[in-house]
Amino acid sequence: xxxxxxxxxxxxxxxxxxxxxxxxxxxxxxxxxxxxxxxxxxxxxxxxxxxxxxxxxxxxxxxxxxxxxxxxxxxxxxxxxxxxxxxxxxxxxxxxxxxxxxxxxxxxxxxxxxxxxxxxxxxxxxxxxxxxxxxxxxx
Amino acid sequence: xxxxxxxxxxxxxxxxxxxxxxxxxxxxxxxxxxxxxxxxxxxxxxxxxxxxxxxxxxxxxxxxxxxxxxxxxxxxxxxxxxxxxxxxxxxxxxxxxxxxxxxxxxxxxxxxxxxxxxxxxxxxxxxxxxxxxxxxxxxxxxxxxxxxxxxxxxxx
Lengths: 139, 156
Prior knowledge:
heterodimer, A: 139 residues, mainly alpha, globular, B: 156 residues, 8 helices, 0% strand
């Protein structure tokens, strides 16, 4: 990957992280209060993010032959199977228990929410066990 | 339903934050063509240190550098936001065991599902992909059930 792309990756990650901090999604208490139906702010975060992303994902490939700093637009892998849906069910149980999803587990550290390191370590361990359980099967 | 009932802490910061997230994911796509989901970061980063065949797939090895830079960007962006706002984020009082075990289950599930709140929730839904939309409905349901159950059992 060229240097311009890596700088852009960093800057875009920073925008994402700033959005997670501004919207207080890096506070598990706020996420849990959504999951318990006492504050529906998470829907505004998700709705706002999806709306902007939808515009770029649908418009950019029609306006541009290629991304500004790279050769081709990537596709998002999409498989309708038991792993996708069962994994989502398991993910939700963990998310509902701790109130932290992967983005906030990483971004929260920048804002000094240190206990989220426990969630981050747990996620690495969970991803590792998933990889071992998957064995040789490339999927 | 008044806004105060739905959003007791206000609503503008939620919407502004969501738009900022969308802007980051959009700019990533327009400049590099990459899909800015997060949870693959765990598998791709583990590929530096583990020889597990699953982790040594090209899709993780070839993406591990940019995914690490993206994660560092996330941390830097959250830091910049806290500095600019000039207010300290309250450190969470959720017990460490709950964060660790919840994180473990969420990490396992997200990788099994090939997506989390960003991959399915933002990127997949923006593309109107049916598997992602179903995944979001499923994980919202199990997350709400779990969060209510934990509270009913007297947990945090």
